[in-house]
């Protein structure tokens, strides 16, 4: 479902990723670990087509990114949900409209959008906040809206970049439980984090980056 084969990426003189090789199976939930600057965000950007590898092969959801035409980027992104650390919610829109926007861009009928938004909000336990403005929500609630937005398009793969980085311990647990529920329904999930506590005891695979290199993989 996700595959890196001898992938390297350099920005100016900085080696962000160096000869990275790994594979995430369909339906798997895994973590990319490492301190700030280790290469976690770069790895996710390559998967989300925000950047391209200099060397190597990257594949996600059955697509070889190296040979994919830019005209097909939008189609591939429909198969990928992305959860941002800083939420990136529209402050002048309601929770409903933030989640519905992706489907409206795709031309989905409003009746179907309503059903899918309700389902996504139920998954993150925020149905009662549907008409609220994001500014009135707590950090944990805003992150759950972000997850619902990533989930509403029914992606086959979900990527998350430090999804609990701005949250307290209680909200960290809540967010991770939501990811586990989503994964249990068949979605492949890759979470980038520097927080060891999120990974310990999950029984999931962790890939450790250090200075752009994959230094080890282990089950936590």
Structure keywords:
single chain, 220 residues, four-stranded antiparallel β-sheet, 7 helices, globular
Beta-strand portion reads: 25-35%
Q: What pattern of helices and strands is seen along the backbone? A: EEEHEEHEHHHEHEHEE
Gyration radius, rounded: 17 Å
Range of helix content: 25-40%
Class derived from helix and strand content: alpha/beta
Distance between the termini: 21 Å
Q: How many E-type strands?
A: 10
Coarse morphology: globular
Q: Count of helices?
A: 7
Largest sheet: 6 strands, mixed
| Uncertain runs | none
Outline the fold blueprint.
Layout: E1 2-11, E2 14-24, E3 29-33, H1 40-47, E4 55-60, E5 63-64, H2 73-77, E6 80-83, H3 95-106, H4 110-123, H5 139-151, E7 157-161, H6 169-184, E8 188-193, H7 196-199, E9 205-210, E10 213-219
In short:
The protein is α/β, with parallel strands linked by helices. The protein is built from seven helices and ten strands. It has a six-stranded mixed beta sheet with strand order 6-7-8-3-9-10, sandwiched between helices. A four-stranded antiparallel beta sheet has the order 2-1-4-5, covered by helices on one side.
Describe the structure.
It is built from seven helices and ten strands. The model has no long low-confidence stretch (mean pLDDT 92). It is an alpha/beta fold. Helix 4 crosses helix 5 (139-151). The strands form two sheets. Strands 6-7-8-3-9-10 form a six-stranded mixed beta sheet, with helices on both faces. The protein has a four-stranded antiparallel beta sheet with strand order 2-1-4-5, with helices on one face. Helix content is 33%, strand content 28%.
